C-alpha cells in the first residue's frame, strides 16, 4: 500500500485546524500536521516533507502569500492551497503568483476542500512525475554523455598513446642520426617535451672515473640554462637514480619522501619528480628527469615515467654512440695532432729546439696543465729538465734535476716503463720536491727511448685527481716515440753535419790541390801546346823533309815536304831509294845509340848522327838521323827522326862558284897574258914601246875594271853593297851621264842624243820623274848601259838615251831607255845577257873589250832599287839586209812619291 500523503494545515484558528484535520484524516486518508503560525509552519516544513499545505492567507506572523513562497522554496514539489476568507481576484492572483496551486474560500466545504486538495495533489503528482521523468531523462542523457565522454577519452588516450609511440619512434630516429652529445641531448629534450611536461627538465651525465655529474642539459621554467655545470656526485636525486639504476617517480609529498629516502633536495623546490637512468648495458651514463614545481600542474604519473624511460633508453644508446663517436673523433684528432706535432718536431734538427717545440706543441694542442721533457744524464745519474710548458712551468727552477730513481720521472728514467698516477697521494714513487708550489694531483711519466737506450722522460701533470686516462697515455707514448725519432734525427743531423764539415774541409783541400794541379796542368799543356805548335810550324814550314821512323826504320810520320818527295814529286823508283836511305840511316842511328848507351850516360859526351847523301835526278838530298829515347834511362831508342835536307842549291852554288872562279881566273889571266906578251914584245922591240905602252895601259885599265867589277859582284853577293837611296831627278842624272859620254861617242863617230821626259806635274823649273835611288849606283847603271851601246855600235850609228814615265803592272814607273843602232843581240843570247861573265859571240870575235859582268851588275843594282831592266833586240830577219839591228835597254824604276 502506498504511503499516506502528508498534509500541513496552517491556520491560526484552532477550530479550523481541528475540522480540517478531522476531515482530511477521516475522509481523505491523509496524514495531517498542523501549525498555528507561519513560523511553526516553516519549522515543520523544515523537519519533513509534505505533499501539500493548506494555508490560511491571513496568519498572525506572516502573510500567507509569503509563507507559500517560503515553503515552495523549501519543497518545490509540495502543492500549496490558499484558504481565504473571501473571494477576491486580487488575493487569488497573489496566491497563484506566490506558487499556490489553488485556493479555497471560507467557509470550508469539506468536499470542495477534498476535491481541491485532490486536484492540487494530482497536479502536483503530475508535476512531480514530469519532473521525475525529466530528471530520469536527464540522468539517462548524462549517463550517455558520460559514456560518450569515456569513449572519447579512451579514443584520445589511444591516440595519445599512438602519438607517444610516434614521438618515441621519431625520437629514436632523430637520435640515431646524432653523433654529437649536445645534439643528442637537444633531440632528447625536444622528443621528451612532446611526451611530458618539460617546463623543468634536465639531463645529467655521469663520469664514473671522476665521480662527477654534469648538467648537460638543464631547463628551468622553459629556459635552457647555459653553461652546463659539473658537480662532484653527491646525495641528490640524480645520484640516487644513478646508484639505484631504477626509475624514480614521486607524485607528491616530495620533501617527506626525500627525507625518508635520505636524499637532499638540491636547487629548486619540487612537488612532483620523475627521473630515469640512462643505461646502456651495465653502464649508467646519466639521468633524465622532469620536475613539477607548480601546484596547479598535474603531478607526474606512472605513464609519464614509462614514457620518460622509453625516451631515456633511446637517448642512452644515442649518447653511447655519440660518446663512441666522440672518442673516435678524439682519437682521430689526437692522432692528427700527434702526427702534426711529430711532423713539426721532426723538421727541427737542433736538439734543444726539438724538445722545446715538442713540449710546447703537445701542451698547446692537448691542453695539458704541465708538460716537461727531461733528458737522462747517465754520467751524473740524473734526469735533467730540458724544457717545460704549461701552467706549472714557472714553478720549477731552471735546470731542475732529479736523481735517477727519484720520483716518478726518475723512476721512469731508470726503468723505462710508463707510470701513471691518477692520484699521486696513492703513488709511493711520487715525490713532490716543491709541495707548497706545485699542486699536482695526477702525473703521467713516459720514457723516451732511442733503440734500447732511455734518453729521456716526458712528464705531464694535472692539478686534478684522475687527470689522465688511457688516451693520454697513448698520446704521451706516441709523442715520446716521435721525440725519440726527432732526437735520433737531431743526433744523426749533428753527425752528418760534422761529417759534411769534414768532407767540406777535405774537399776544399782537394779543390785547392786540384786548382794548383789544374793550373800546373794548364800551364804545362799550354807549354806543350805551344811547343807542339812551334814544332808543328817548324815541321810544316821547314824546307827540309822530316820523317819519324820506328827503331827498325819504318816510316811512322812524315812532314809535308817529305811526304811530297815520298809520294808525289819523285818517281816510284827514286821514292823507293829515298825510303831505303831513310831506313838505313834511321837503323844506323838507333843501333849506334844502343851501342854507345853506357858511354852516352857520361857527361859531356857528344855523338855524331849518321849522315848519308842521296843523289837523285835534279835533287841532291842529305839525310841525317837522330835516335829518340822516350824515357830517361831507357835501354834502347824506340824511334828515330830523319832530317832530309835538299842540298841541290848548294851543289848548284858550288858549280856556280867553280864556274865563277874558272871565269874570273880566265878573265884575269887573259889581260895578264896580254900584258906579259907586250912586255915581252917591248923587251924585244924597245923602239916600239910607245905603241905597246898604249896596249899595256889599255890592258891594265881592263884589268882594273875587271877587278873592280868582280869586287862589286862579290860585295853584292855578300850583301855589303852600300846604298844610300834618295829622291833623285832622273832627267838630271841621265843628262849628266850622257854628257859624260859625249867625247867617247865623238871619238867613235857616233851620234849621242838625249831626250828628257816632259815635266811630270807641269811645273816649270823642276819637272821630270823623280825616283828614290842611290844616285851613285844609278849613275853606274847608266854608265854601263851607255858604255855598252857606244861599244857595240859601229861608227856612224846613233845612241839615243831618253827618260820617260810608263804605266805597267798597275803603277807608274820612271824609265830610262838606252837605244842604239848597233850590232844587236841574237835571239839565242838575249836570255843570257844579264848572266855573269856572259859575253856575246860577236863581241868576242871582234875582240871588243868587256868583262861580261856589266849587265849582271846593272840587273842586281836595279833590282835592289825595286826596279827591273829589260832588253829588246829585233831579230835579224826584221831588218833584212843590214847587219846592225840595234838594241834597246830599258830600266824601270819606282817613282818617288
Ligand atoms: P861586256 O860588255 O863587258 O862584254 P856586258 O855584261 O856589259 O859585258 O855585256 C854582255 C854582252 O851583252 C856583251 O858581250 C854583248 O854580247 C852583249 N851586249 C851588251 N850590250 C850590247 C849592245 N848595246 N849591243 C849589242 N850587244 C850588247
Question: What report would you give on this structure?
Answer:
It is a single chain. The strands form 6 sheets. Strands 6, 7, 8, 9, 10, 11 and 12 form a 7-stranded antiparallel β-sheet that branches. The chain has 897 residues and is of the alpha+beta class. Helix 5 packs antiparallel against helix 6, helix 6 runs antiparallel to helix 9 (302-346) and helix 9 runs antiparallel to helix 10 (351-366). The relative contact order is 0.03. Residues 788-789, 792, 820, 822-825, 833, 838-840, 843, 850-855, 887 line the site of adenosine-5'-diphosphate.
Measure the end-to-end span: 197 Å
Globally, the shape reads rod-shaped
Largest sheet geometry:
7 strands, antiparallel
Q: Average pLDDT across residues?
A: 84
Beta strand count: 30
Low-confidence stretches: 876-881
Helix percentage: 40-55%
Q: Cofactors and ligands present?
A: adenosine-5'-diphosphate
Beta fraction: 15-25%
Radius of gyration: 83 Å
Helix/strand-derived class? alpha+beta
Q: What's the number of helices?
A: 21
Amino acid at each position: 500500500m502506498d504511503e499516506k500523503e502528508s498534509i500541513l494545515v496552517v491556520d491560526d484558528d484552532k477550530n479550523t485546524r481541528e475540522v480540517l484535520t478531522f476531515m482530511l484524516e477521516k475522509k481523505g486518508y491523509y496524514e495531517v500536521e498542523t501549525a498555528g503560525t507561519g513560523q511553526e509552519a516553516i519549522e515543520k516544513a523544515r523537519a519533513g516533507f509534505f505533499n501539500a499545505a493548506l494555508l490560511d492567507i491571513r496568519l498572525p506572523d506572516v502573510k500567507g502569500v509569503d509563507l507559500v513562497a517560503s515553503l515552495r522554496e523549501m519543497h518545490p514539489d509540495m502543492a500549496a492551497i490558499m484558504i481565504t476568507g473571501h473571494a477576491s481576484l486580487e488575493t487569488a492572483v497573489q496566491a497563484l503568483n506566490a506558487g499556490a496551486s489553488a485556493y479555497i474560500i471560507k467557509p470550508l466545504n469539506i468536499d470542495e476542500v477534498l476535491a481541491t486538495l485532490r486536484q492540487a495533489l494530482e497536479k502536483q503528482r503530475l508535476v512531480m512525475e514530469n519532473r521525475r521523468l525529466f530528471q530520469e531523462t536527464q540522468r539517462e542523457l548524462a549517463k550517455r554523455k558520460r559514456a560518450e565522454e569515456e569513449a572519447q577519452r579512451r579514443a584520445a588516450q589511444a591516440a595519445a598513446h599512438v602519438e607517444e609511440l610516434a614521438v618515441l619512434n621519431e625520437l629514436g630516429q632523430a637520435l640515431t642520426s646524432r653523433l654529437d652529445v649536445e645534439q643528442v641531448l637537444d633531440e632528447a629534450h625536444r622528443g621528451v617535451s612532446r611526451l611530458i611536461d618539460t617546463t623543468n627538465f634536465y639531463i645529467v651525465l655521469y663520469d664514473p672515473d671522476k665521480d662527477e655529474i654534469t648538467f648537460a642539459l638543464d631547463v628551468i621554467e622553459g629556459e635552457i640554462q647555459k653553461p652546463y655545470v659539473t658537480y662532484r656526485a653527491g646525495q641528490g636525486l640524480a645520484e640516487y637514480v644513478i646508484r639505484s639504476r631504477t626509475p624514480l617517480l614521486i607524485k607528491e609529498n616530495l620533501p617527506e619522501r626525500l627525507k625518508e629516502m635520505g636524499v637532499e633536495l638540491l636547487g629548486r623546490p619540487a612537488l612532483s619528480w620523475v627521473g630515469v637512468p640512462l643505461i646502456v648495458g651495465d653502464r649508467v651514463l646519466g639521468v633524465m628527469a622532469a620536475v613539477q614545481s607548480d601546484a596547479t600542474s598535474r603531478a607526474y604519473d606512472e605513464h609519464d615515467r614509462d614514457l620518460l624511460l622509453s625516451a631515456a633508453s633511446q637517448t642512452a644508446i644515442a649518447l653511447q654512440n655519440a660518446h663512441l663517436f666522440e672518442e673516435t673523433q678524439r682519437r682521430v684528432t689526437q692522432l692528427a695532432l700527434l702526427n702534426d706535432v711529430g711532423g713539426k718536431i721532426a723538421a727541427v734538427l737542433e736538439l734543444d729546439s726539438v724538445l722545446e717545440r715538442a713540449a710546447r706543441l703537445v701542451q698547446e694542442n692537448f691542453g695539458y696543465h704541465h708538460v716537461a721533457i727531461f733528458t737522462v744524464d747517465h754520467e751524473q745519474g740524473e734526469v735533467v729538465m730540458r724544457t717545460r710548458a704549461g701552467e706549472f712551468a714557472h714553478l720549477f727552477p731552471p735546470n731542475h734535476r732529479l736523481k735517477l730513481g727519484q720520483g716518478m720521472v726518475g723512476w721512469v728514467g731508470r726503468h723505462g716503463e710508463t707510470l701513471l698516477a691518477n692520484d699521486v697521494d696513492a703513488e709511493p714513487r711520487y715525490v713532490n720536491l716543491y709541495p707548497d708550489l706545485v699542486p699536482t694531483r695526477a702525473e703521467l711519466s713516459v720514457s723516451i727511448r732511442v733503440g734500447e737506450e732511455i734518453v729521456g722522460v716526458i712528464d705531464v701533470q694535472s692539478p686534478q685527481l684522475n687527470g689522465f686516462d688511457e688516451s693520454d697515455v697513448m698520446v704521451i707514448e706516441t709523442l715520446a716515440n716521435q721525440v725519440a725519432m726527432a732526437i735520433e734525427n737531431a743526433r744523426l743531423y749533428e753527425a752528418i753535419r760534422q761529417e759534411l764539415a769534414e768532407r767540406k774541409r777535405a774537399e776544399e783541400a782537394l779543390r785547392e790541390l786540384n786548382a794548383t794541379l789544374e793550373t800546373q796542368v794548364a800551364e804545362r799543356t799550354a807549354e806543350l801546346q805551344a811547343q807542339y805548335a812551334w814544332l808543328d810550324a817548324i815541321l810544316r814550314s821547314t824546307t827540309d823533309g822530316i820523317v819519324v821512323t820506328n827503331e827498325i826504320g819504318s816510316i811512322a810520320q812524315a812532314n809535308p815536304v817529305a811526304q811530297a818527295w815520298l809520294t808525289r814529286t819523285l818517281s816510284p823508283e827514286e821514292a823507293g831509294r829515298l825510303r831505303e836511305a831513310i831506313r838505313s840511316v834511321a837503323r844506323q842511328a838507333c843501333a849506334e845509340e844502343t851501342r854507345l848507351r853506357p858511354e852516352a850516360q857520361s857527361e859531356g859526351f857528344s855523338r855524331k848522327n849518321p849522315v848519308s847523301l842521296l843523289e837523285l835526278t835534279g835533287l841532291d838530298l842529305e839525310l841525317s838521323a837522330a835516335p829518340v829515347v822516350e824515357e830517361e834511362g831507357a835501354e834502347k831508342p824506340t824511334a828515330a827522326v830523319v832530317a832530309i835536307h835538299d842540298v841541290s842549291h848548294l851543289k848548284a852554288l858550288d858549280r856556280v862558284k867553280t864556274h865563277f872562279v874558272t871565269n874570273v881566273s880566265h878573265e884575269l889571266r887573259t889581260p895578264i897574258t896580254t900584258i906579259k906578251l907586250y912586255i915581252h914584245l917591248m923587251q924585244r922591240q924597245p923602239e916600239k914601246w910607245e905603241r905597246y905602252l898604249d896596249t899595256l895601259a889599255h890592258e891594265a885599265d881592263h884589268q882594273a875594271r875587271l877587278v873592280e867589277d868582280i869586287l862589286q859582284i862579290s860585295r853584292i853577293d855578300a850583301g855589303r853593297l852600300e846604298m844610300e837611296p834618295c829622291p833623285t831627278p832622273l832627267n838630271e842624272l841621265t843628262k849628266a851621264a850622257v854628257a859624260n859620254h859625249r867625247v867617247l861617242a865623238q871619238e867613235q863617230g857616233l851620234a849621242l842624243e838625249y831626250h828628257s821626259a816632259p815635266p811630270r806635274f807641269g811645273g816649270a823649273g823642276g819637272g821630270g820623274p823623280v825616283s828614290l835611288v842611290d844616285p851613285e849606283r844609278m849613275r853606274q847603271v847608266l854608265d854601263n848601259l851607255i858604255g855598252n851601246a857606244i861599244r857595240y855600235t859601229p861608227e856612224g850609228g846613233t845612241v839615243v838615251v831618253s827618260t820617260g814615265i810608263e804605266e805597267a803592272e798597275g803603277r807608274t814607273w820612271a824609265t830610262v831607255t838606252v837605244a842604239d843602232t848597233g850590232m844587236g843581240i841574237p835571239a839565242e843570247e838575249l836570255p843570257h845577257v844579264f848572266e855573269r861573265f856572259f859575253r856575246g859571240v860577236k863581241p868576242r870575235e871582234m875582240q871588243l873589250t868587256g868583262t861580261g859582268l856589266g849587265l849582271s851588275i846593272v840587273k842586281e843594282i836595279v833590282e835592289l832599287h825595286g826596279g827591273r831592266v829589260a832588253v829588246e833586240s829585233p831579230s835579224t830577219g826584221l831588218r833584212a839586209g843590214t847587219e846592225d839591228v840595234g838594241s834597246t835597254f830599258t830600266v824601270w824604276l819606282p817613282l818617288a812619291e
